[in-house]
Amino acid sequence: MDNPANTDSVVGEIKSTPGMQTYGVHSMAEWLSQMTADNIPALAIFIKIVIGISVTIGFIVIFQAMYTAVMERTREIGMLKSMGASKQYIVALILRETIALTIAGIILGTGLSLAAGAGIHYRAPILPMDVDLTWIGKTTLIAIVGALAGALYPALKAASKDPIEALAYD
């Protein structure tokens, strides 16, 4: 075919050829329009499973990092408790720190993602890079909830430590 304007007539001619009626003949534009996530079976389920696994792994990593941070700061927590800090104060302190780190991570991660998208678009301008603000909002919410859930147990454990044992900890 020498002219893209003739696409429909060529497709019609192929379909009218004897023996070709049972074959599906599509133009390139039609074929590409069918290659979307909505038309690929089970892709949406697969994407949701990958997101679930990612969130679970993220939760475990945050939990481990916060647990390690609390264990390394046992002496500091013991000093705060010996000076009269309540359990609620210790929990709130650790959760505030978690939120601050989470927000910094969200900003850094979003910035790097947008920069990577711009770099990909610069190197391969034919690849569409769609930035959906609703997904940024969803991932921000997932990150904050995951960080708080991952930090809650270490915060409660730190708040329940005996100040004398914590000060003697090395």
SSE order and pairing:
Layout (H helix, E strand, L loop, with lengths): L6 H10 L11 H6 L9 H30 L1 H9 L4 H37 L9 H27 L3 H6 L2
Helix pairs in contact: 3-6, 5-6
Number of helices: 7
Number of domains: 2
**String of helices and strands:** HHHHHHH
Shape: rod-shaped
Write down the overall mean pLDDT. Answer: 83
Radius of gyration using CA atoms only: 28 Å
Structural class: mainly alpha
Strand content: under 5%
- Helical residue percent band: over 70%
| Termini Cα gap | 79 Å
Walk me through what this model shows.
- By secondary structure, the chain is mainly α.
- The mean pLDDT is 83.
Give a quick set of tags describing it.
single chain; 170 residues; mainly alpha; 2 domains
Short description:
The chain is mostly helical. Helix 3 runs parallel beside helix 6 and helix 5 (87-123) packs antiparallel against helix 6 (133-159). The protein contains 7 helices and no strands.
